Amino acid sequence: MKRTISFLNGAFVGALAGALLALLLTPKSGQDLRDAIKREVDDIMTEGRRAAEQRRRELEAQLQQLWES
């Protein structure tokens, strides 16, 4: 389980770095680039919140099962 989480964290960081690098190397104006980076960061934050909420629900369900046992 720990290896899977480490792999997913590494994949996430790699994807984030790749996305930012692509944005930085794209020939855009400063304002367009800032807007694109802001949108990308907002999307990543939204996905992170969604994943955290899902994991919280899973852990609460597991805890509830343990209490009922």
Question: How would you explain this protein's 3D organization?
Answer:
- The chain has helices at 2-25, 30-68.
- Helices cover 91% and strands 0% of the residues.
- It has one domain.
- The model has no long low-confidence stretch (mean pLDDT 87).
- The chain is elongated and about 60 Å long.
- It is built from two helices and no strands.
- The protein is mainly α and 69 residues long.
What are the SSEs and their pairings?
Layout: H1 2-25, H2 30-68
Task: Please provide a brief summary of the model.
The chain is an all-alpha fold and 69 residues long. It is 91% helix and 0% strand.
Q: Can you write the helix and strand succession as a string?
A: HH
Radius of gyration: 18 Å
What characteristic shape results from the CA principal axes?
Answer: elongated
First CA to last CA: what distance? 23 Å
Q: Largest sheet at a glance?
A: none
What's the overall average pLDDT, rounded? 87
SS elements, strand count: 0
Q: Keywords for this structure?
A:
mainly alpha, 91% helix, 69 residues, 2 helices
